[in-house]
Amino acid sequence: MPVELEYKYLIDKDEVQYDVLIEKLISMGISYRVLNISQGYLPKAGRLRKITETGPSGSMSQKFIFTYKHKLSFQPGDLEIETEISEDDFCLGSSDCSFNIDKTRVVFNHGPYTWEVDFFNDRSSTNGHYLVLVECEVQDGVQPDLHFLPEYLMGGLQYRVPLGDSRFSNKNLSFIENAKNLYEICR
User: Fold this and answer.
1) Does the pLDDT at position 140 exceed 70?
2) pTM here?
């Protein structure tokens, strides 16, 4: 069970666009994956996610995940346990979920790191994304070297989120108005 340290970076949602990011990664010769993630939180503990990956040829695959996450009290980071579940179990639990979010995630390796760029989708409007976050998860406790963050994303960097800042948890970012206010405060 690995300890997870997530370094997050708030990106200017008006500067960094999904389509342009994909073009930049292609031009740099960086392979990437695109995941559409629907996520909700169960009342007592845990979260459910449906992850749909679209391949370069247009092929699609889906998986359903249950995650238990616990903030450690004796060291920085979280204990995270994930397991794949059936679609039936996902559907059964989804009706009890709250704090639901939809996001499009672009995952790529650059340098020694795996970067995840989350575009939080605003389902209630045609404005697209209400927030863009870059995340780099490490297990050795060493903060990622931002020289390995592509220039396009680095140019949109607005705020380095302190480790453990719960304002930037997915659960808290599920409140769209709260996330928009947080975006304005941290710019």
Assistant:
1) no
2) 0.90
